[in-house]
């Protein structure tokens, strides 16, 4: 007859395995590819200047 200690160890391993599987599934669902969304003061465009100076209009 297996001892109570071996049942506790098996239960701990099963619990750890279940937690690991849940953590992996949760991280995969959060890692979906979302495109960046910019909304600054009602504007949906961002202007990137490659050079600064009077010759670069805004």
From TrEMBL:
Residues 1-31 form the signal peptide. Keywords: Signal. This is Uncharacterized protein. It comes from Bracon brevicornis.
